[in-house]
């Protein structure tokens, strides 16, 4: 049996704000933006060249979903963006206004730094130790 996780839903206040951050700031590709009617869209974004899981940006619908924006993982880092060049991406993101919550650090598993998306979700930017020369 072959299985894979292909999408992770990320609740955002509106589709365009999600696209603006993930595409225009982080450089993700916009894989799909389809109108589903009644103000709903099917919006998928993913890191370019990654070939892995994509994010499904879902506009919050109702008070409970709105309350979950930025806290979908209970305040923990919930998303991990792996890079082959930490210094390059950290600097590019910093120049584009990405908010890092700490200074970069080296751990046994790689170089890492936590950043917050504009919706409050915590991400690790990480270059695994195995990709460093």
Q: What secondary-structure arrangement, pairings included, does this model have?
A:
Elements: E1 7-12, H1 15-25, E2 29-37, E3 40-46, E4 54-59, H2 63-68, E5 77-82, H3 86-95, E6 99-100, E7 105-107, E8 110-116, E9 122-128
Parallel strand pairs: 1-4, 5-9
Antiparallel strand pairs: 2-3, 3-4, 6-8, 7-8, 8-9
Characterization of this structure:
- This protein folds into 2 domains: 1-69, 2,3-Dihydroxybiphenyl 1,2-Dioxygenase, domain 1 (Roll), CATH 3.10.180.10; 70-133, 2,3-Dihydroxybiphenyl 1,2-Dioxygenase, domain 1, CATH 3.10.180.
- The protein is 20% helix and 40% strand.
- The protein contains 3 helices and 9 strands.
- The strands form 2 sheets. Strands 5, 6, 7, 8 and 9 form a 5-stranded mixed β-sheet that branches.
- β8 (110-116) and β9 (122-128) form a beta hairpin.
- It is globular, with a radius of gyration of 15 Å.
- The N and C termini lie far apart (36 Å).
- If you consult CATH, what is the topology of the largest domain? 2,3-Dihydroxybiphenyl 1,2-Dioxygenase, domain 1
Number of helices: 3
The CATH class designation of the largest domain is Alpha Beta
The overall strand count is: 9
Fraction of residues in helix: 10-25%
CATH homologous superfamily identity of the largest domain: 2,3-Dihydroxybiphenyl 1,2-Dioxygenase, domain 1
Helix and strand composition category: alpha+beta
Report the sheet-strand fraction: 35-45%
Main sheet summary:
5 strands, mixed
Runs in which pLDDT lies below 50 for 5 or more consecutive residues are: none
Distance between the termini: 36 Å
Order of helices and strands: EHEEEHEHEEEE
CATH architectural name of the largest domain? Roll
Total count of domains: 2
Identify the overall geometry. globular
What number is the mean pLDDT? 95
**Cα gyration radius (Å):** 15 Å
């Amino acid at each position: 049996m072959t299985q894979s996780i292909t999408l992770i839903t990320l609740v955002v206040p509106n589709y365009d704000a999600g696209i603006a951050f993930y595409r225009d700031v982080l450089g993700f590709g916009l894989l799909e933006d389809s109108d589903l009617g009644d103000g709903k869209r099917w919006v998928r974004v993913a890191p370019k060249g990654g070939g892995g899981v994509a994010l499904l940006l879902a506009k919050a619908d109702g008070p409970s979903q709105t309350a979950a924006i930025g806290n979908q993982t209970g305040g923990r880092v919930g998303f991990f963006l792996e890079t082959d060049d930490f210094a390059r991406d950290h600097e590019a993101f910093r120049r584009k206004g990405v908010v890092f919550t700490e200074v970069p650090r080296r751990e046994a598993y790689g170089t890492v730094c936590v950043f917050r998306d504009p919706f409050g979700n915590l991400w690790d930017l990480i270059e695994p130790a195995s990709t460093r020369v």
